[in-house]
Amino acid sequence: MTLVLNEEQRLLKDTAKDFISRVMPVSALRTLRDQKDALGYKREHWQQMVELGWASMVLPEAYDGLDFGYMGLGAVIEESGRTLAASPLFSTVVLGSTIIIEGGSEEQKSALLPGIAAGEISLALALEEKPHHQTTGFATTAVADGDDFIIQGKKVFVLDGHSADQLIVATTMESGIGLFIVDASASGIDRRRHHLIDSRNTATIEFKQVRVNKSSLIGDAVQGQNILNTAMDYGRICLAAEMLGAAKECFERTVAYLKERDQFGVKIGSFQALQHRAAKMYIELELSKSVVLDALSAIDDKRADLPQLASLAKASLNDVFELVTNEAVQMHGGIGVTDELDIGFFLKRSRVATQILGDSSFHRDRYASLCGY
Amino acid sequence: MSDLDQFRQTVHAWLEENCPPAMRTPITREEQVWAGKNKVFPNQDAKLWFERMRDKGWTAPEWPAELGGGGLDERQAKVLRDEMKRLGCRTPLFDLGIWMLGPAVLEYGTEEQRQQHIPSIVRGDVRWCQGYSEPGAGSDLASLQTRAEDHGDHFLVNGAKIWTTNADKADWIFCLVRTDPDAKKQEGISFLLIDMDNPGVSTTPIELISGESEFCQTFFDNVKVPKANLIGELNKGWSVAKSLLKHERKLMAEIGGDTPGPSFSPVQAGIEYVGLDSSGKLRDHGLREQLVSHEMAYRAIGLTHFRSFEERMNGVADNNVPLIMKYVGTEESKRKEEVLMAILGQRALGWYDDEFNADELLTNRGWLFSKALSIAGGTSEVQLNIIAKRVLGLPT
Ligand SMILES: Cc1cc2nc3c(=O)[nH]c(=O)nc-3n(C[C@H](O)[C@H](O)[C@H](O)COP(=O)(O)OP(=O)(O)OC[C@H]3O[C@@H](n4cnc5c(N)ncnc54)[C@H](O)[C@@H]3O)c2cc1C
After folding, report:
1. Phi, psi of B215 (to 5 degrees)
2. Looking at residues A299-308, what average pLDDT do you find?
3. What are residue A183's phi and psi, to 5 degrees?
């Protein structure tokens, strides 16, 4: 267990910070939004990220990965949070490839992982069906039909679902949870992209009697839930890292504003009512930072308390991101509610990120249950 | 095996052999061994345990060995603390000398002053108390008025201190006194050690909401103090005071340490007093929510302590992190006590009564005591001021 980055990881973080602030500032997301960009991210940005090794960072060496670990990937993702950078990194590498690595057959791994590492294949996890995060009991079904399975159901809030090359679908099977890898262009698949408040990508996907070969089942129905749980926990932790970066950035912008805005003949940052609230945000951010680092290192160390830490990290960052974005808008006053200022982008992203893979009340409930009460 | 692992094994073995089993149970207030000329030991085991630790210098593990301390570096000291915690070993000696004054004397004292005070603190020969606050100077400590006039070979001290914890039981007091009434607030203050046996020193206790009376008022009426008792430079006592406060805050931030309290954790108490429903959840969902919020925060604080330590060890310390710990540590301790009170319900409300067991009676004492944590050593509000100004650089 370690809570500090090593030399290599720090270097990686600095590079990421430099690249992201230069190439993908918040204005890049603003442009995607304003132009109603069909893809929702810039392909050349994603290619550059791939060249920096981010897509291969946590993949095994045997499949062209770097095996560099999640402390490193987390550092990159945190920096990407600072500018709300849009890319398929989270859906493809964190959620998608984890499922393949954890449960995939040799064929599935060699068919997909090198392509992911090279940035040639993007994945999306079709998981949710309801307004709130769901981890099991899916209405989407996979029924055996000879050597095939027939998938039927409707998935919502699929991150990068409209653009992914391959979909991983969570289904209910006779004997458990089935995770299927399905080509996004397979017949019977109907994808509808949504424009959400955060200007990032999600889709509703309907599976109408989609026929897949049994070779597209990942692991088996008995392991399905465990594989999915692992991927969700990795996802929660990496998303928490992104939220940490975003919350920090939003906080720093707010503190800078407190130092520059004059009212009543003084800087507003001299008002104690604002100082104390700013100090509390700083404290919460420092605590969150420790939690995220510990959770990332728990992935690398394959620690048994990973589920607890994932819930701790996600709940903490949901709360702190909400706090910081609300306070940021309030402390900016009128300009805080204008579209011109980037603060609103952080506010909107915070609420989307909160819903992804479980809100705070979901995770507090889970944490308590995992601790035996 | 690394040197540190080796050290851990040695420490572990030594503790196993030398810490009597009775000294590995949660401590009660009555069982604490406080330093002093007339030390009181609750039993033979406590005496033995104290003497063994003292002889190794482990009452002050990080102080120089030649002054009686343990001579350990920061990593080794942490190993010792961790191993003691793991075995449940009690703190062998309680004293403000160890926690606060000693580090200040090591930093600012002359060689003579170190020789005079450090070994006696390690051995627990002298009990120290802290004379900072005055009726008109609390958060605004620098406005203190107790005067020390230069009388050639000694100072003549006059004034009154308040909230001096355990002054009536202490042998010596470390004080902030005004030595230059004409200088700006912070600049005319000196740091002085005073023997409580000196004629003119008197104390009166103040009763607290917890029913105890740890606080005293301390009066100085023409008290003669030798000049050799001045720590640091004349009129430069403010820097000594601040350095010492840093240690006090660090101490107060160490939540869940060896302070006496009920023997159950909040989660255990919840399971016992509220019970689980058929789905294995605490029956009262509102209480469960409070409990899990606390448990999560508590874990985050523990991780932040550890991160801060690791950052120091790796030479990448963010010196701002320690500044938040007093605030979060004490505020979260208060929350924990509120949660415990809520969980025990009526069972937490007994004062003196055979109807209630010891844990139940300790619960409300702990709750009342926790209220002092966010006041002593700089209030939570003052901590937030410090963070706003020093860390965030917000304007005054
Ligand atoms: C358990 C305990 C043990 C103690 N032991 C000792 C001891 O051994 N020796 C000793 O010298 N002292 C001791 N103290 C005293 C302690 O240091 C003071 O109580 C503390 O510094 C606060 O001062 P005060 O009580 O005068 O409160 P005040 O300073 O009067 O504060 C009252 C309220 O006003 C708020 N306030 C004050 N200034 C500001 C500001 N600038 N901005 C915002 N809010 C502000 C405070 O936060 C507080 O809420 C002890 C206190 C406690 C509770």
Report:
1. -75, 150
2. 97
3. -65, 130
Ligand 1: centre distance to CA B66 (Å): 37
Going by alpha carbons, the residue nearest to atom 29 of ligand 1 is B139
Residues sharing a CB contact under 8 Å with residue A324, sequence separation 6 or more, in sequence order = A247, A250, A251, A254, A281, A284, A285, A346, A350
ipTM (interface pTM): 0.95
Residue B271: closest C-alpha in chain A: A373
How many Å apart are CA B333 and CA B59, to the nearest integer?
Answer: 25
The pLDDT value given to residue A300 = 97
Residue A263 pairs in a beta bridge with A266
- pLDDT < 70 positions in chain B: 255-259
Task: Identify each DSSP E strand in B13-146 by its residue range.
Answer: 128-131
How far, in Å, CA of A321 to CA of A198, rounded?
Answer: 14
Which atom belonging to ligand 1 lies closest to the Cα atom of B380? 47
Question: What pLDDT is recorded for position B27?
Answer: 86
| Interchain CB distance below 8 Å, A367 and B291 | no
Average pLDDT of the segment spanning A19-48: 97
pLDDT at B258: 59
Q: What is the tens place of the pLDDT at every residue in B106-120?
A: 999 999 999 999 999
Inter-chain CB proximity B303 and A255 less than 8 Å: no
* The predicted structure's pLDDT at residue B24: 95
Q: Specify the residue for token string 């069909």.
A: A38
**Position A257 pLDDT exceeds 90:** yes
Instruction: Using DSSP, state whether A142 is helix, strand or coil.
Output: strand
Residue B368 beta carbon below 6 angstroms from any ligand 1 atom: no
Query: What is the pLDDT, as a whole number, of residue B255?
Result: 56
Q: Are A178 and A171 in contact (CB under 8 A)?
A: yes
Residues of B in contact with A272 (CB under 8 A): 385, 388
CA distance A320 to chain B (A): 12
- Residue B260 has, within 13 A of its CA and on its CB side, a CA count of 17
**Cα-flanking dihedrals φ and ψ of residue B287, to 5°?**
-65, -40
* Chain B residues touching A256 at Cβ < 8 A: none
Confidence (pTM):
0.95
Q: Determine the Cα–Cα distance for residues B81 and B95; give it in Å rounded to an integer.
A: 17
Position A118 scores a pLDDT of 97
B interface residues, A as partner, C-beta within 8 Å: 267, 270-271, 276, 280-282, 288-289, 291-293, 295-297, 299-301, 303-304, 306-307, 310-311, 314, 316, 320-321, 324, 327-328, 381, 383-385, 387-389, 391-396
